């Protein structure tokens, strides 16, 4: 995460945007104090590869169920009232 003064960001806006497009996060400073952050845009619903892998492992574990008394329970059985 790089810190950039508002003046520098204003004078070099296109290069700042190019950095953000490359994945860099920029913190904008006014008189040395952070006032804003520019981060790369992520489409809603899209996860980075690491989070997607974690999600896939969790779903596989849920589908498998939790073995109790030698019989795995389904998700519906766990939340049955």
Helices and strands in order, then pairings?
Elements: E1 2-5, H1 6-11, H2 13-21, E2 26-30, E3 33-38, H3 49-64, E4 66-68, E5 71-73, H4 75-78
Parallel strand pairs: 1-2
Antiparallel strand pairs: 2-3, 4-5
Structure description:
Strands 1-2-3 form a 3-stranded mixed sheet. It has one domain: 3-Layer(aba) Sandwich (YefM-like fold), CATH 3.40.1620.10. A hairpin with a 2-residue loop joins strand 2 and strand 3. It contains 4 helices and 5 strands; from the N terminus they run βααββαββα. Helix content is 43%, strand content 26%. The model has no long low-confidence stretch (mean pLDDT 86). It is α+β, with helices and mostly antiparallel strands and 81 residues long.
SS field, number of helical segments? 4
Query: What's the N-to-C terminus distance?
Result: 49 Å
Question: If you consult CATH, what is the topology?
Answer: YefM-like fold
| Major sheet description | 3 strands, mixed
Which class best fits the helix and strand makeup?
A: alpha+beta
By DSSP, the count of extended strands is: 5
Report the C-alpha radius of gyration, rounded. 23 Å
Largest beta sheet: strand ordering: 1-2-3
Low-confidence residue ranges: none
Mean pLDDT: 86
Number of domains: 1
Give the name of the CATH architecture.
3-Layer(aba) Sandwich
């Amino acid at each position: 995460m790089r810190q950039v003064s508002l003046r520098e960001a204003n004078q070099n806006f296109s290069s700042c945007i190019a950095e953000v497009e490359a994945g860099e996060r920029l913190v904008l400073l006014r008189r040395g104090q952070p006032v804003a952050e520019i981060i790369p845009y992520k489409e809603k619903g899209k996860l980075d590869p690491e989070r997607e892998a974690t999600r896939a492992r969790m779903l596989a574990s849920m589908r498998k169920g939790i073995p109790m008394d030698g019989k795995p329970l389904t998700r519906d059985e766990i939340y049955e009232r």
